[in-house]
Amino acid sequence: MAKIEMPDDFYAQTPDANVRATEAVMNTIETADLLFDRIARLLRPLNVSAAGGLVLGILRDRGPMSPSELGGRLIVTRATVTGVVDSLERRGFVRRSPNPADRRGLVVEITPAGLVVLQQLRTLIHRHEKIWMSVLPEAELGDYIETLRRIQDSVSTAADERD
Description:
Oligomer: single chain
Distance between the termini: 36 Å
CATH superfamily: Winged helix-like DNA-binding domain superfamily/Winged helix DNA-binding domain
Shape: globular
Low-confidence stretches: none
Number of domains: 1
Strand content: 5-15%
CATH architecture: Orthogonal Bundle
């Protein structure tokens, strides 16, 4: 994999920037893309997308919920949720049923087949996560997680202040 480096004239182009901050962001994006790609490849034989796996996990862990609740948990559009749920329903991993609290709405719930594929998915992904993160000792993993959370908070706060 090619090392991400900024050009020698970085500050000439953007004097108010910080080369290390830019390299950090670019490497974070590169790492996320690499992880998304690896996870998608692992899930392909199970006939589930990464988003589909997240939906199955949420439904298993939190119970049946409306498509809009799923969208809120996934932070995606309702159209995206509809497409993912449609795909999972075609495969028999979820089912839609009338919402007992609101007859106009629906709830989505995981099926027994969805529970089976979710268990396979989690076993596979968690095994690989352990391998991928084994480059960091346990203490460094804790520090890494805390660092990521601080960055996430900073990005969220900056976005809130700008909007």
